[in-house]
Design a protein that fits this description.
The chain is α/β, with parallel strands linked by helices. The chain contains 19 helices and 25 strands. Among the domains are: 152-221 and 230-279 and 293-372; 496-609, no CATH class. 26% of the residues lie in helices and 22% in strands. It has a 20-stranded mixed β-sheet that branches. A three-stranded parallel β-sheet has the order 1-2-3. It has a two-stranded parallel ribbon with strand order 19-24. β20 and β21 form a beta hairpin.
Length: 609
C-alpha cells in the first residue's frame, strides 16, 4: 500500500508519530529511512553538555560517510538548549554552522537566565536563520543587511536598532519585511527611545504583529503625537515598566495599536535594580508633564480599557516598593474585570511581590486586608484560562472553587499560586480534588504552594475520574501520604505531561530504624501510563518527629518502563549533586516511578518550574 502513496503523504503520516515510534518505523522499510531521518533531526532538544557533545560527534561521523544534502546535519532546522551549562564560544558555534547549515532557530529555553558570557557571533553563516536570539553578538550590525529580511522573530537590544530613526536613513525598502515578533531590551540604552523611532520601526516592519519592550523606565524618552499612523496588524503588546515614564506613552499606545487582543504589563524588577516609584519628577520631564498618582492611574486604566478587542490580559507586579501602589490602578482594574463591559477570556493576575512590602505590624494588617479586597474574578464563569496568585483572604470565586461549590465549564487552563510568605496553614483546607471536580473540561492544571490535609484512613483520596486533564504541574507541595501523587495521576488517566518540583515528602516514623526509612525510595506507581514529558526537580525528603529538621534532597530517579523488554529500569542522577555527595559523603535518596514509558525526562536537584 505504501508504494502507491507519494513520499509527501507518507511524511505527513510519519510526522504524527512520537520519537520512539519513528525509531521503530525506521527499520520497517529502506525507502522510509531518508524521510524518518529528516523528521528525527528536524527539531532537537539538548538537555546536557554530554548530550550536546554526542550530537556533534554523531553529526560529524554521519557527514563523512553520507553524500551532500543527505547527511543528518543538513536536515536540522531547530536546536533548543535546555541547560545553562552548555556554553559555546565562537569556534564551537562556527563548527555547528558547518554541520547544520540550514538551521532556522538556535536558542536556549526562554526561562534560562543568560549573561554576557553567552554572547556569540551569529553572522556570518546561517543564511536561513529565521529567529535571532538575544544572545547574539554583532558589533557592526552585519546581521541587519545579511539576514534581516528573512527574520520572523528578533530579540535584540535597542541600541542595535536605534539607527532606524536617524538622519539619512531612508525607508525605500523595509529592512525587516517578514518580521512578525520583536523583543526589544531597552535597558542601559545610550539613546532614549522615542515615538518617532516607533513610527520608523513599523515602516521597516510592516508585518509586525507582536511587540515586547523590556525594562521601560524614566529614560525611555518622549515624542510627539502629531505624526503617527495606526498599526492595525499588531495584536500582541507586552510592556515591562520599572519606573515612571512620560504619560504621553500611554496615550500613544492606546491610539497606535487599536486591535490589541493580548496585553501584558509587568511592573517593577525582582532584582537589586528595583527603584522606588517616587513623586519626584523624572530628570527628563518638566513639572507640567509629570502627573500625580490619581491622574497617572486614570491614564493607565484608560489605555487598558480602550482596547475593544482585548481578550487576554496579563498583569504582574515584581516590585516591593509601596509607592507603586499609588500609581497603578489595581483596584479600578479589578472592578473593571468584574464588570460586564469587558471580553476577557484569559487572565493572568499576579500581585505577589506586593505582599512582601515592608510595613509595621499594624500597617501590614491594614495593607493585607486592603489588598485582599481587590477582587478581579467577578466574571470567573466566563474565563477559559486563569493564572492567579491567591490572596490571604480567599476571594469568593476561589473559595467556592476549592470547596467544589461551583462548576466552570469554560475553564481549560488553571494556574494557582498560594503564597508561601503568608500563613501557609491557611491553605491546608484547599482540596485539589474539588478543584478538578469544579473544572470538568480542564486540560492544564498548575498549582504552587499546596499543603493538603491527608488522613491515613483514606479520606481525601481521589475518586471520580477526570477525563480531560492532559498536563499537571505541581510545585511546593507538602504531603504525608506516599500514595497521594499515584492516586492523583490514576484519577487523571490522560495526563501525559507531569512536573513535580521543589516539594517536601514527610515520611512518618513507624520504627526506630531511621536509616532504613530514609533509604526507602519515594514511589509513584502508574504502570499503564505513557508520558510525553516527565520533569522532576528539587524534591525534599524528611521524617516526621525527628529532632533533626534538615531536609534531604532526592538525588536519583529510577524509571521502570514496562513497555521495554524485561521491565527495564533507567536511573537518572544529577551530576552536580553526585559530585557534592561524593565530597561530603552524603547518602543519596531515591525516587522510583513505575509507568509504561516516558518519551522525555528531566531530573535535577535544582529548582524547576
Amino acid at each position: 500500500m505504501t508504494r502507491s502513496l507519494p513520499p509527501e503523504i507518507i511524511e505527513i503520516i510519519l510526522n504524527n508519530l512520537s520519537l520512539r515510534e519513528l525509531v521503530i518505523a525506521s527499520v520497517v522499510c529502506r525507502a522510509w529511512t531518508p524521510l524518518i531521518s529528516r523528521l528525527l533531526y528536524q527539531s532537537i532538544n539538548i538537555y546536557s553538555v554530554k548530550q550536546y557533545t554526542s550530537l556533534l560527534f554523531g553529526l560529524q561521523a554521519n557527514q563523512e560517510r553520507v553524500s551532500d544534502k543527505e547527511y543528518n546535519g543538513y536536515h536540522v532546522r531547530r536546536i533548543i538548549l535546555y541547560s545553562a551549562n552548555i556554553m559555546l564560544d565562537n569556534v564551537e558555534l562556527a563548527e555547528l554552522k558547518e554541520l547544520c547549515p540550514m538551521i532556522t532557530l538556535f536558542d536556549y529555553r526562554k526561562d534560562i537566565f543568560l549573561t554576557d558570557e553567552y554572547l556569540c557571533e551569529f553572522t556570518p553563516g546561517w543564511s536561513n536563520l529565521e529567529e535571532l536570539p538575544i544572545w547574539h553578538e554583532d558589533e557592526g550590525n552585519i546581521w541587519v543587511n545579511r539576514i534581516g529580511k528573512r527574520l520572523t522573530t528578533i530579540s535584540a537590544y535597542y541600541d542595535e536598532l536605534s539607527f532606524l530613526h536617524s538622519p539619512g536613513n531612508s525607508i525605500d525598502q523595509p529592512l525587516f519585511a517578514n518580521l512578525v515578533h520583536l523583543f526589544l531590551d531597552v535597558s542601559f540604552s545610550s539613546t532614549p527611545i522615542s515615538i518617532e523611532w516607533m513610527e520608523a520601526l513599523h515602516c521597516h516592519a510592516p508585518l509586525l504583529t507582536s511587540l515586547e519592550l523590556d525594562y521601560i523606565s524614566s529614560e525611555i524618552g518622549s515624542g510627539s503625537l502629531n505624526n503617527w499612523k495606526p498599526a492595525e496588524r499588531l495584536g500582541i503588546l507586552k510592556w515591562h515598566i520599572d519606573n515612571y515614564i512620560d504619560p504621553v506613552w500611554y496615550k500613544y499606545l492606546s491610539r497606535k495599536y487599536p486591535n490589541v487582543y493580548d496585553l501584558s504589563i509587568s511592573i517593577g524588577n525582582e532584582d537589586e535594580f528595583d527603584e522606588d516609584f517616587t513623586d519626584d519628577p523624572s530628570t527628563n520631564l518638566t513639572q507640567e508633564r509629570h502627573l500625580g498618582p490619581a491622574s497617572y492611574r486614570r491614564l493607565i486604566l484608560d489605555m487598558i480599557t480602550s482596547y475593544s478587542h482585548l481578550t487576554k490580559l496579563r498583569i504582574k507586579s515584581q516590585t516591593k516598593w509601596s509607592s507603586y501602589l499609588d500609581y497603578f490602578p489595581w483596584r479600578d482594574l479589578a472592578d473593571w474585570l468584574s464588570s460586564k463591559g469587558n471580553k476577557i477570556q484569559c487572565l493572568d493576575w499576579f500581585l505577589g511581590s506586593l505582599w512582601e512590602i515592608g510595613f509595621s505590624p499594624r500597617e501590614l494588617d491594614a495593607f493585607r486586608s486592603g489588598l485582599s479586597s481587590i477582587r478581579p474574578l467577578g466574571n470567573l464563569n466566563l474565563l477559559k484560562e486563569l493564572s492567579y496568585d491567591v490572596p490571604e483572604q480567599l476571594e469568593g470565586g476561589i473559595l467556592d472553587l476549592s470547596l467544589g461549590k461551583m462548576t466552570l465549564h469554560n475553564m481549560t487552563h488553571l494556574k494557582l499560586e498560594f503564597s508561601f510568605s503568608l500563613n501557609w496553614k491557611a491553605w491546608k483546607k484547599i482540596n485539589l480534588d474539588n478543584i478538578l471536580d469544579s473544572c470538568p473540561n480542564l486540560k492544564t492544571l498548575a498549582v504552587k504552594g499546596l499543603y493538603p490535609e491527608i488522613n491515613d484512613d483514606g479520606d481525601n483520596k481521589p475518586t471520580n475520574t477526570h477525563s480531560a486533564l492532559v498536563s499537571l504541574f505541581i510545585q511546593e507541595l507538602a504531603i504525608t501520604n506516599m500514595d497521594y501523587l499515584s492516586d492523583l495521576l490514576q484519577r487523571c488517566p490522560l495526563v501525559t505531561k507531569f512536573l513535580w518540583s521543589n516539594s517536601i515528602v514527610v515520611c512518618k516514623q513507624q520504627s526506630d530504624n531511621t536509616e532504613a526509612i530514609m533509604e526507602t525510595p519515594i514511589k509513584i506507581d502508574i504502570p499503564g501510563r505513557i508520558f510525553s514529558q516527565l520533569s522532576i526537580g528539587r524534591i525534599h525528603y524528611t521524617i516526621c518527629g525527628e529532632d533533626n529538621d534538615d531536609l534531604e534532597l532526592v538525588s536519583t530517579l529510577s524509571i521502570r518502563e514496562s513497555a521495554k523488554s524485561f521491565d527495564q529500569w533507567t536511573t537518572y542522577t544529577d551530576e552536580d549533586w553526585k559530585q557534592r555527595s561524593e565530597e561530603t559523603k552524603v547518602k543519596t535518596r531515591g525516587l522510583e516511578i513505575n509507568c509504561r514509558y516516558a518519551d522525555r525526562m528531566e531530573f535535577s536537584t535544582r529548582y524547576v518550574w
